[in-house]
Amino acid sequence: MNTLAEENYLKSIYHLSLNDENVSTNQLAALLNTKASSVTDMLKKLADKTLINYTPYQGVTLTAAGEKIAVNIIRKHRLWEFFLVEKLSFKWDEVHEMAEEMEHISSNELIDRLDKFMDYPKYDPHGDPIPDSDGKFKLHDLKPVSAIEVNTCGVICGVRDHSSSFLQYLEKQGLTIGKKITVNDIIEFDRSMILQMENKTLQISREVANNLLITI
Amino acid sequence: MNTLAEENYLKSIYHLSLNDENVSTNQLAALLNTKASSVTDMLKKLADKTLINYTPYQGVTLTAAGEKIAVNIIRKHRLWEFFLVEKLSFKWDEVHEMAEEMEHISSNELIDRLDKFMDYPKYDPHGDPIPDSDGKFKLHDLKPVSAIEVNTCGVICGVRDHSSSFLQYLEKQGLTIGKKITVNDIIEFDRSMILQMENKTLQISREVANNLLITI
DNA sequence: TAATAAATTTAGACAAACCTAAATATTTAT
DNA sequence: ATAAATATTTAGGTTTGTCTAAATTTATTA
Prior knowledge:
The structure is a homodimer of 216-residue chains. Among the domains of chain A are: 4-62, Arc Repressor Mutant, subunit A (Orthogonal Bundle); 143-215, Ferrous iron transport protein A (FeoA) (SH3 type barrels, Roll). In chain A, helix 1 crosses helix 4 (64-86). The first copy, chain A, has helices at 4-17, 25-31, 36-48, 64-86, 96-102, 108-117, 164-173, 206-211, and strands at 52-54, 60-62, 143-144, 153-159, 180-186, 193-197, 200-204, 212-215. By secondary structure, the first copy, chain A, is of the alpha+beta class.
Protein backbone atom coordinates (compact mmCIF):
# COMPACT_ATOMS: atom_id res chain seq x y z
CA MET A 1 0.00 0.00 0.00
CA ASN A 2 0.96 3.61 -0.52
CA THR A 3 0.87 6.46 1.93
CA LEU A 4 -1.56 9.33 1.69
CA ALA A 5 1.20 11.65 0.52
CA GLU A 6 2.27 9.21 -2.20
CA GLU A 7 -1.30 8.90 -3.43
CA ASN A 8 -1.66 12.66 -3.62
CA TYR A 9 1.56 13.00 -5.61
CA LEU A 10 0.48 10.31 -8.08
CA LYS A 11 -2.91 11.94 -8.51
CA SER A 12 -1.32 15.35 -9.08
CA ILE A 13 1.17 13.98 -11.60
CA TYR A 14 -1.72 12.38 -13.44
CA HIS A 15 -3.73 15.61 -13.59
CA LEU A 16 -0.74 17.67 -14.74
CA SER A 17 0.15 15.04 -17.34
CA LEU A 18 -3.09 15.82 -19.17
CA ASN A 19 -1.60 19.19 -20.16
CA ASP A 20 2.11 18.46 -20.38
CA GLU A 21 3.85 15.23 -21.27
CA ASN A 22 6.54 15.79 -18.63
CA VAL A 23 5.53 17.18 -15.26
CA SER A 24 8.00 19.50 -13.56
CA THR A 25 9.00 19.75 -9.93
CA ASN A 26 7.69 23.30 -9.65
CA GLN A 27 4.33 22.43 -11.18
CA LEU A 28 3.91 19.77 -8.54
CA ALA A 29 5.08 22.06 -5.76
CA ALA A 30 2.51 24.65 -6.79
CA LEU A 31 -0.36 22.18 -7.07
CA LEU A 32 0.47 20.38 -3.83
CA ASN A 33 1.16 23.56 -1.91
CA THR A 34 4.62 22.49 -0.91
CA LYS A 35 8.24 23.31 -1.71
CA ALA A 36 10.25 22.11 -4.69
CA SER A 37 12.77 20.41 -2.42
CA SER A 38 10.01 18.38 -0.79
CA VAL A 39 8.81 17.35 -4.22
CA THR A 40 12.29 16.18 -5.22
CA ASP A 41 12.43 13.95 -2.12
CA MET A 42 9.11 12.38 -2.93
CA LEU A 43 9.93 11.90 -6.61
CA LYS A 44 12.97 9.85 -5.62
CA LYS A 45 10.80 7.71 -3.41
CA LEU A 46 8.16 7.16 -6.09
CA ALA A 47 10.88 6.39 -8.64
CA ASP A 48 12.34 3.77 -6.26
CA LYS A 49 8.90 2.16 -6.19
CA THR A 50 8.80 2.32 -10.01
CA LEU A 51 5.58 4.31 -9.95
CA ILE A 52 7.13 7.16 -11.95
CA ASN A 53 9.89 7.68 -14.50
CA TYR A 54 12.15 10.31 -13.05
CA THR A 55 15.25 11.85 -14.57
CA PRO A 56 16.70 14.65 -12.41
CA TYR A 57 16.02 18.10 -13.89
CA GLN A 58 13.83 16.56 -16.63
CA GLY A 59 10.51 16.10 -14.88
CA VAL A 60 8.44 12.95 -14.48
CA THR A 61 5.88 10.73 -16.15
CA LEU A 62 3.80 7.99 -14.55
CA THR A 63 4.65 4.35 -15.18
CA ALA A 64 1.75 2.02 -16.00
CA ALA A 65 1.68 0.97 -12.33
CA GLY A 66 1.63 4.59 -11.18
CA GLU A 67 -1.10 5.54 -13.62
CA LYS A 68 -3.26 2.64 -12.47
CA ILE A 69 -3.07 3.87 -8.88
CA ALA A 70 -3.76 7.46 -9.92
CA VAL A 71 -6.80 6.51 -11.99
CA ASN A 72 -8.16 4.43 -9.13
CA ILE A 73 -7.91 7.40 -6.78
CA ILE A 74 -9.69 9.58 -9.32
CA ARG A 75 -12.36 6.90 -9.68
CA LYS A 76 -12.91 6.97 -5.93
CA HIS A 77 -12.93 10.75 -5.79
CA ARG A 78 -15.55 11.07 -8.51
CA LEU A 79 -17.78 8.29 -7.20
CA TRP A 80 -17.79 9.85 -3.74
CA GLU A 81 -18.60 13.23 -5.28
CA PHE A 82 -21.50 11.65 -7.11
CA PHE A 83 -22.68 10.04 -3.88
CA LEU A 84 -22.49 13.29 -1.96
CA VAL A 85 -24.52 15.18 -4.57
CA GLU A 86 -27.02 12.51 -5.60
CA LYS A 87 -27.63 10.75 -2.30
CA LEU A 88 -26.81 13.34 0.34
CA SER A 89 -28.03 16.41 -1.61
CA PHE A 90 -24.85 18.44 -1.42
CA LYS A 91 -24.34 21.13 -4.05
CA TRP A 92 -21.69 20.64 -6.73
CA ASP A 93 -19.53 23.37 -5.20
CA GLU A 94 -19.51 21.77 -1.74
CA VAL A 95 -18.13 18.29 -2.35
CA HIS A 96 -14.52 18.63 -3.44
CA GLU A 97 -12.87 18.84 -0.02
CA MET A 98 -14.85 15.92 1.38
CA ALA A 99 -14.04 13.77 -1.63
CA GLU A 100 -10.35 14.63 -1.20
CA GLU A 101 -10.50 12.75 2.09
CA MET A 102 -12.80 9.96 0.95
CA GLU A 103 -10.72 9.08 -2.11
CA HIS A 104 -8.14 7.56 0.24
CA ILE A 105 -10.48 4.97 1.77
CA SER A 106 -8.62 1.89 0.65
CA SER A 107 -11.18 -0.84 -0.03
CA ASN A 108 -11.82 -1.48 -3.72
CA GLU A 109 -14.67 -3.80 -2.82
CA LEU A 110 -16.30 -0.84 -1.09
CA ILE A 111 -15.93 1.44 -4.07
CA ASP A 112 -17.22 -1.20 -6.48
CA ARG A 113 -20.31 -1.68 -4.33
CA LEU A 114 -20.80 2.06 -4.09
CA ASP A 115 -20.56 2.20 -7.88
CA LYS A 116 -23.26 -0.48 -8.17
CA PHE A 117 -25.42 1.18 -5.48
CA MET A 118 -25.52 4.34 -7.60
CA ASP A 119 -26.10 2.36 -10.80
CA TYR A 120 -22.69 2.87 -12.39
CA PRO A 121 -22.70 6.60 -13.08
CA LYS A 122 -20.55 7.66 -16.04
CA TYR A 123 -19.90 11.29 -15.05
CA ASP A 124 -19.42 13.09 -11.75
CA PRO A 125 -21.35 16.24 -10.73
CA HIS A 126 -18.87 18.46 -12.63
CA GLY A 127 -19.11 16.42 -15.79
CA ASP A 128 -15.78 14.64 -15.34
CA PRO A 129 -15.80 10.99 -16.44
CA ILE A 130 -15.75 8.28 -13.76
CA PRO A 131 -13.30 5.46 -14.55
CA ASP A 132 -14.84 1.98 -14.27
CA SER A 133 -13.34 -0.74 -12.08
CA ASP A 134 -10.83 -1.54 -14.84
CA GLY A 135 -9.74 2.08 -15.01
CA LYS A 136 -11.41 2.68 -18.35
CA PHE A 137 -13.42 5.80 -19.14
CA LYS A 138 -14.46 7.91 -22.11
CA LEU A 139 -13.92 11.63 -22.37
CA HIS A 140 -16.61 13.74 -23.97
CA ASP A 141 -15.31 15.74 -26.90
CA LEU A 142 -15.43 19.02 -25.01
CA LYS A 143 -14.77 22.60 -26.09
CA PRO A 144 -14.83 25.78 -24.09
CA VAL A 145 -17.80 27.98 -24.95
CA SER A 146 -15.23 30.58 -25.98
CA ALA A 147 -14.18 28.37 -28.90
CA ILE A 148 -17.50 28.30 -30.71
CA GLU A 149 -18.97 30.64 -33.28
CA VAL A 150 -21.94 32.93 -33.13
CA ASN A 151 -25.24 31.14 -33.76
CA THR A 152 -23.96 27.70 -32.91
CA CYS A 153 -25.24 25.84 -29.90
CA GLY A 154 -24.09 23.15 -27.49
CA VAL A 155 -24.84 21.36 -24.26
CA ILE A 156 -22.96 22.14 -21.04
CA CYS A 157 -20.97 19.04 -20.13
CA GLY A 158 -18.14 20.16 -17.89
CA VAL A 159 -16.05 22.88 -16.32
CA ARG A 160 -12.35 23.65 -16.55
CA ASP A 161 -12.18 25.57 -13.28
CA HIS A 162 -13.53 23.60 -10.30
CA SER A 163 -13.35 26.38 -7.71
CA SER A 164 -16.46 26.82 -5.61
CA SER A 165 -16.69 30.50 -6.51
CA PHE A 166 -16.91 29.61 -10.20
CA LEU A 167 -19.35 26.77 -9.59
CA GLN A 168 -21.54 28.97 -7.41
CA TYR A 169 -21.59 31.64 -10.11
CA LEU A 170 -22.65 29.10 -12.75
CA GLU A 171 -25.33 27.70 -10.46
CA LYS A 172 -26.77 31.18 -9.89
CA GLN A 173 -26.87 31.80 -13.65
CA GLY A 174 -28.47 28.40 -14.23
CA LEU A 175 -25.46 27.32 -16.27
CA THR A 176 -25.45 23.73 -15.05
CA ILE A 177 -24.56 20.35 -16.57
CA GLY A 178 -26.99 19.32 -19.31
CA LYS A 179 -28.29 22.80 -20.16
CA LYS A 180 -28.49 23.70 -23.84
CA ILE A 181 -27.05 27.07 -24.80
CA THR A 182 -26.68 29.07 -28.01
CA VAL A 183 -24.14 31.80 -28.62
CA ASN A 184 -26.14 34.78 -29.86
CA ASP A 185 -23.39 37.33 -30.08
CA ILE A 186 -19.82 38.14 -29.13
CA ILE A 187 -18.99 41.63 -27.90
CA GLU A 188 -16.03 42.87 -29.83
CA PHE A 189 -14.63 45.09 -27.10
CA ASP A 190 -13.90 42.40 -24.45
CA ARG A 191 -15.00 39.28 -26.33
CA SER A 192 -17.66 38.57 -23.70
CA MET A 193 -20.47 36.39 -25.02
CA ILE A 194 -24.23 36.74 -25.16
CA LEU A 195 -25.90 33.38 -24.62
CA GLN A 196 -29.41 32.15 -25.14
CA MET A 197 -30.66 29.52 -22.74
CA GLU A 198 -34.28 28.42 -22.26
CA ASN A 199 -35.88 31.74 -23.35
CA LYS A 200 -33.42 33.72 -21.26
CA THR A 201 -30.51 35.77 -22.54
CA LEU A 202 -27.39 36.17 -20.46
CA GLN A 203 -23.93 37.59 -20.84
CA ILE A 204 -20.76 35.89 -19.71
CA SER A 205 -17.20 37.16 -19.65
CA ARG A 206 -14.47 35.65 -21.80
CA GLU A 207 -12.96 34.24 -18.59
CA VAL A 208 -16.17 32.37 -17.84
CA ALA A 209 -16.53 31.22 -21.45
CA ASN A 210 -13.02 29.78 -21.33
CA ASN A 211 -13.89 27.66 -18.31
CA LEU A 212 -17.31 26.40 -19.34
CA LEU A 213 -17.17 23.26 -21.47
CA ILE A 214 -19.75 22.07 -23.99
CA THR A 215 -20.34 19.37 -26.56
CA ILE A 216 -21.57 20.52 -29.94
CA MET B 1 -8.16 19.57 14.34
CA ASN B 2 -6.60 16.42 15.69
CA THR B 3 -4.34 13.96 13.95
CA LEU B 4 -5.44 10.46 13.06
CA ALA B 5 -3.27 9.03 15.85
CA GLU B 6 -4.78 11.40 18.42
CA GLU B 7 -8.29 10.43 17.36
CA ASN B 8 -7.47 6.76 17.71
CA TYR B 9 -6.05 7.27 21.19
CA LEU B 10 -9.13 9.20 22.33
CA LYS B 11 -11.43 6.54 20.92
CA SER B 12 -9.45 3.79 22.65
CA ILE B 13 -9.44 5.61 25.97
CA TYR B 14 -13.18 6.00 25.67
CA HIS B 15 -13.74 2.30 25.00
CA LEU B 16 -11.48 1.22 27.85
CA SER B 17 -13.15 3.71 30.20
CA LEU B 18 -16.38 1.73 29.94
CA ASN B 19 -14.74 -1.05 31.95
CA ASP B 20 -12.29 0.81 34.15
CA GLU B 21 -12.53 4.32 35.50
CA ASN B 22 -8.81 4.94 34.95
CA VAL B 23 -7.21 3.64 31.78
CA SER B 24 -3.61 2.41 32.05
CA THR B 25 -0.72 2.88 29.67
CA ASN B 26 -0.41 -0.86 29.07
CA GLN B 27 -4.11 -1.28 28.33
CA LEU B 28 -3.78 1.37 25.64
CA ALA B 29 -0.57 -0.14 24.28
CA ALA B 30 -2.28 -3.53 23.94
CA LEU B 31 -5.41 -2.13 22.27
CA LEU B 32 -3.51 0.16 19.92
CA ASN B 33 -0.89 -2.43 19.07
CA THR B 34 1.96 -0.19 20.09
CA LYS B 35 4.51 0.09 22.91
CA ALA B 36 3.97 1.58 26.34
CA SER B 37 6.64 4.20 25.73
CA SER B 38 4.82 5.41 22.62
CA VAL B 39 1.64 5.65 24.64
CA THR B 40 3.34 7.78 27.28
CA ASP B 41 4.49 10.22 24.59
CA MET B 42 0.98 10.57 23.22
CA LEU B 43 -0.62 10.90 26.65
CA LYS B 44 1.59 13.91 27.36
CA LYS B 45 0.52 15.43 24.08
CA LEU B 46 -3.18 14.85 24.72
CA ALA B 47 -2.84 16.19 28.26
CA ASP B 48 -1.22 19.37 26.87
CA LYS B 49 -4.29 19.79 24.69
CA THR B 50 -6.50 19.21 27.76
CA LEU B 51 -8.26 16.31 26.09
CA ILE B 52 -7.32 13.92 28.91
CA ASN B 53 -6.52 14.06 32.62
CA TYR B 54 -3.13 12.46 32.99
CA THR B 55 -1.13 11.86 36.16
CA PRO B 56 2.08 9.90 35.52
CA TYR B 57 1.78 6.29 36.71
CA GLN B 58 -1.91 6.77 37.54
CA GLY B 59 -3.55 6.29 34.17
CA VAL B 60 -5.90 8.62 32.34
CA THR B 61 -9.51 9.74 32.01
CA LEU B 62 -11.06 11.81 29.24
CA THR B 63 -11.94 15.44 29.84
CA ALA B 64 -15.34 16.63 28.61
CA ALA B 65 -13.66 17.94 25.47
CA GLY B 66 -11.87 14.64 24.88
CA GLU B 67 -15.02 12.62 25.41
CA LYS B 68 -16.93 14.76 22.96
CA ILE B 69 -14.36 14.04 20.27
CA ALA B 70 -14.30 10.32 21.10
CA VAL B 71 -18.09 10.01 20.97
CA ASN B 72 -18.17 11.83 17.64
CA ILE B 73 -15.68 9.35 16.17
CA ILE B 74 -17.76 6.46 17.48
CA ARG B 75 -20.87 8.08 15.97
CA LYS B 76 -19.13 8.22 12.60
CA HIS B 77 -17.84 4.67 12.87
CA ARG B 78 -21.26 3.24 13.64
CA LEU B 79 -23.11 5.27 11.02
CA TRP B 80 -20.65 4.15 8.35
CA GLU B 81 -21.02 0.55 9.49
CA PHE B 82 -24.78 0.90 9.18
CA PHE B 83 -24.37 2.38 5.72
CA LEU B 84 -22.08 -0.43 4.59
CA VAL B 85 -24.48 -3.11 5.77
CA GLU B 86 -27.82 -1.54 4.91
CA LYS B 87 -26.98 0.26 1.70
CA LEU B 88 -24.02 -1.63 0.28
CA SER B 89 -25.06 -5.10 1.50
CA PHE B 90 -21.89 -5.97 3.37
CA LYS B 91 -22.14 -8.59 6.10
CA TRP B 92 -21.79 -7.57 9.75
CA ASP B 93 -18.41 -9.27 9.99
CA GLU B 94 -16.95 -7.39 7.02
CA VAL B 95 -17.38 -3.74 7.93
CA HIS B 96 -15.15 -3.00 10.89
CA GLU B 97 -11.89 -2.31 9.05
CA MET B 98 -13.55 -0.08 6.48
CA ALA B 99 -15.34 1.90 9.17
CA GLU B 100 -12.03 2.33 11.00
CA GLU B 101 -10.88 4.38 8.02
CA MET B 102 -14.17 6.14 7.37
CA GLU B 103 -14.62 7.33 10.96
CA HIS B 104 -11.83 9.84 10.32
CA ILE B 105 -13.57 11.68 7.48
CA SER B 106 -13.78 15.07 9.13
CA SER B 107 -17.00 16.74 7.95
CA ASN B 108 -19.78 16.75 10.53
CA GLU B 109 -22.18 18.10 7.94
CA LEU B 110 -21.48 14.97 5.91
CA ILE B 111 -22.15 12.63 8.80
CA ASP B 112 -25.34 14.46 9.76
CA ARG B 113 -26.63 14.12 6.21
CA LEU B 114 -25.64 10.46 6.10
CA ASP B 115 -27.58 10.01 9.36
CA LYS B 116 -30.64 11.62 7.79
CA PHE B 117 -30.23 9.64 4.54
CA MET B 118 -30.48 6.43 6.56
CA ASP B 119 -33.38 7.77 8.63
CA TYR B 120 -31.52 8.23 11.91
CA PRO B 121 -30.71 4.64 12.86
CA LYS B 122 -30.41 4.05 16.62
CA TYR B 123 -28.18 0.96 16.56
CA ASP B 124 -25.37 -0.24 14.32
CA PRO B 125 -25.22 -3.72 12.74
CA HIS B 126 -23.71 -5.20 15.91
CA GLY B 127 -26.35 -3.70 18.16
CA ASP B 128 -24.16 -0.90 19.47
CA PRO B 129 -25.98 2.41 19.97
CA ILE B 130 -25.30 5.25 17.53
CA PRO B 131 -24.79 8.63 19.27
CA ASP B 132 -26.94 11.42 17.81
CA SER B 133 -25.44 14.69 16.58
CA ASP B 134 -25.38 15.97 20.17
CA GLY B 135 -23.47 12.89 21.30
CA LYS B 136 -26.44 11.45 23.16
CA PHE B 137 -27.38 7.79 23.00
CA LYS B 138 -29.19 5.18 25.04
CA LEU B 139 -27.73 1.82 25.97
CA HIS B 140 -29.99 -1.21 25.99
CA ASP B 141 -30.01 -2.97 29.32
CA LEU B 142 -27.95 -5.89 28.07
CA LYS B 143 -26.91 -9.14 29.71
CA PRO B 144 -24.75 -11.94 28.39
CA VAL B 145 -26.78 -15.07 27.65
CA SER B 146 -24.58 -16.79 30.23
CA ALA B 147 -26.17 -14.67 32.97
CA ILE B 148 -29.72 -15.88 32.55
CA GLU B 149 -31.53 -18.84 34.09
CA VAL B 150 -32.97 -21.93 32.52
CA ASN B 151 -36.41 -21.38 30.98
CA THR B 152 -36.05 -17.64 30.65
CA CYS B 153 -35.94 -16.00 27.26
CA GLY B 154 -34.55 -12.86 25.65
CA VAL B 155 -33.88 -11.07 22.39
CA ILE B 156 -30.38 -10.87 20.90
CA CYS B 157 -29.37 -7.22 20.94
CA GLY B 158 -25.61 -7.11 20.83
CA VAL B 159 -22.23 -8.81 21.02
CA ARG B 160 -19.31 -8.36 23.39
CA ASP B 161 -16.71 -9.77 21.01
CA HIS B 162 -16.67 -8.04 17.60
CA SER B 163 -14.17 -10.33 15.87
CA SER B 164 -15.19 -11.55 12.44
CA SER B 165 -14.68 -15.19 13.46
CA PHE B 166 -17.23 -14.80 16.25
CA LEU B 167 -19.65 -12.85 14.05
CA GLN B 168 -19.36 -15.42 11.26
CA TYR B 169 -20.07 -18.21 13.73
CA LEU B 170 -23.17 -16.44 15.04
CA GLU B 171 -24.37 -15.75 11.50
CA LYS B 172 -24.03 -19.43 10.59
CA GLN B 173 -26.01 -20.45 13.67
CA GLY B 174 -28.67 -17.84 12.87
CA LEU B 175 -27.89 -16.05 16.12
CA THR B 176 -28.35 -12.54 14.75
CA ILE B 177 -29.63 -9.24 16.15
CA GLY B 178 -33.35 -9.35 16.88
CA LYS B 179 -33.69 -13.13 17.23
CA LYS B 180 -35.65 -14.43 20.23
CA ILE B 181 -34.00 -17.22 22.19
CA THR B 182 -34.90 -19.30 25.24
CA VAL B 183 -32.45 -21.09 27.49
CA ASN B 184 -33.69 -24.68 27.69
CA ASP B 185 -30.90 -26.21 29.68
CA ILE B 186 -27.40 -25.70 31.03
CA ILE B 187 -24.95 -28.59 30.87
CA GLU B 188 -23.41 -28.97 34.27
CA PHE B 189 -20.09 -30.32 33.06
CA ASP B 190 -18.90 -27.33 31.03
CA ARG B 191 -21.80 -24.90 31.58
CA SER B 192 -22.55 -24.84 27.87
CA MET B 193 -26.13 -23.84 27.10
CA ILE B 194 -28.94 -25.42 25.13
CA LEU B 195 -30.98 -22.75 23.38
CA GLN B 196 -34.35 -22.81 21.70
CA MET B 197 -34.78 -20.49 18.73
CA GLU B 198 -37.61 -20.59 16.18
CA ASN B 199 -38.37 -24.33 16.53
CA LYS B 200 -34.67 -25.21 16.43
CA THR B 201 -32.53 -26.30 19.33
CA LEU B 202 -28.86 -25.43 19.44
CA GLN B 203 -26.01 -25.68 21.85
CA ILE B 204 -23.50 -22.92 22.53
CA SER B 205 -20.35 -22.95 24.63
CA ARG B 206 -19.97 -20.86 27.78
CA GLU B 207 -17.51 -18.73 25.85
CA VAL B 208 -20.10 -17.92 23.21
CA ALA B 209 -22.80 -17.34 25.84
CA ASN B 210 -20.52 -14.82 27.57
CA ASN B 211 -20.17 -12.81 24.39
CA LEU B 212 -23.74 -12.84 23.15
CA LEU B 213 -25.88 -10.07 24.65
CA ILE B 214 -29.64 -10.04 25.10
CA THR B 215 -32.44 -7.97 26.59
CA ILE B 216 -34.90 -9.81 28.78
C1' DT C 1 28.51 32.58 -26.18
C1' DA C 2 28.98 34.35 -21.85
C1' DA C 3 26.32 36.26 -18.16
C1' DT C 4 22.18 36.21 -15.76
C1' DA C 5 17.95 34.22 -14.34
C1' DA C 6 15.13 30.40 -13.27
C1' DA C 7 14.50 25.71 -11.99
C1' DT C 8 16.03 21.90 -9.50
C1' DT C 9 18.63 19.26 -6.32
C1' DT C 10 21.45 18.61 -2.12
C1' DA C 11 22.51 19.34 2.70
C1' DG C 12 21.08 19.73 7.06
C1' DA C 13 16.96 20.40 10.36
C1' DC C 14 12.47 19.61 12.37
C1' DA C 15 7.90 17.57 14.09
C1' DA C 16 4.99 13.52 14.52
C1' DA C 17 4.70 9.06 15.88
C1' DC C 18 6.86 5.32 16.49
C1' DC C 19 10.84 2.19 18.47
C1' DT C 20 14.48 -0.21 22.06
C1' DA C 21 16.90 -0.16 26.23
C1' DA C 22 17.57 1.65 30.64
C1' DA C 23 15.85 3.90 34.74
C1' DT C 24 12.30 4.60 38.04
C1' DA C 25 7.70 3.82 40.38
C1' DT C 26 4.30 0.96 41.97
C1' DT C 27 2.36 -3.35 43.26
C1' DT C 28 2.57 -7.99 45.01
C1' DA C 29 4.15 -11.54 47.70
C1' DT C 30 6.98 -13.58 51.01
C1' DA D 1 8.46 -4.53 55.44
C1' DT D 2 11.35 -5.63 52.09
C1' DA D 3 12.49 -8.22 47.84
C1' DA D 4 10.82 -9.44 43.48
C1' DA D 5 7.81 -8.65 39.79
C1' DT D 6 5.27 -5.57 37.05
C1' DA D 7 4.10 -1.14 35.11
C1' DT D 8 5.52 3.18 33.53
C1' DT D 9 8.50 6.74 32.14
C1' DT D 10 12.85 8.65 30.25
C1' DA D 11 16.61 8.80 27.02
C1' DG D 12 18.10 8.42 22.71
C1' DG D 13 17.00 6.73 17.82
C1' DT D 14 14.34 6.01 13.33
C1' DT D 15 11.17 7.07 9.44
C1' DT D 16 8.09 10.02 6.85
C1' DG D 17 7.31 14.13 4.98
C1' DT D 18 8.14 18.53 5.47
C1' DC D 19 11.25 22.95 5.64
C1' DT D 20 15.27 26.67 4.60
C1' DA D 21 19.47 27.78 2.61
C1' DA D 22 23.08 26.72 -0.39
C1' DA D 23 24.78 24.50 -4.51
C1' DT D 24 24.11 23.00 -9.07
C1' DT D 25 21.98 22.53 -13.54
C1' DT D 26 19.28 24.30 -17.30
C1' DA D 27 17.30 28.06 -19.86
C1' DT D 28 17.27 32.78 -21.40
C1' DT D 29 19.01 36.85 -23.20
C1' DA D 30 22.02 40.31 -24.39
